[in-house]
Design a protein that fits this description.
Length: 118
């Protein structure tokens, strides 16, 4: 069986021969770079969300879960009632948002994670 032709790694200055785009070392770097870029896009998204969350919590300052249980606890988190799982529409849907305190939110996300394990 003929081996795939080898050529120098695409990384500038690297002379390692490889049949892929990059030698194993630079393949790892390229993957890390992709992740880094994804993180940058995520940050733009986060800035918009932070503004939205601050405005939402001003309008809904109390934890909805605690309020149902008759406790008045300041909300610090805007929770997605239905887990958005990366769905932007669900993520930004105001009907899908509720104010929660950190401990209610942690309890909720913990049980959601449990759900995905099963
Ligand atoms: Zn290389
Ligand atoms: Zn709460």
């Amino acid at each position: 069986m003929p081996a795939k032709p080898k050529h120098p790694c695409n990384h500038i200055g690297c002379t390692e021969l490889t049949s892929e785009r990059y030698c194993p070392q630079h393949q790892q770097d390229a993957r890390r770079y992709d992740r880094h870029r994804a993180g940058a896009a995520q940050r733009g998204y986060d800035a918009r969300w932070r503004r939205y969350r601050a405005a939402f919590l001003r309008r809904h300052p109390l934890c909805a879960e605690c309020e149902r249980a008759g406790r008045l606890t300041p909300a610090t988190v805007v929770d997605h009632i239905v887990a958005h799982k990366g769905n932007r529409q669900l993520f930004w849907d105001p009907d899908n948002h509720q104010p929660l305190c950190a401990s209610c939110h942690n309890r909720k996300t913990a049980s959601e994670d449990m759900g995905t394990w099963m």
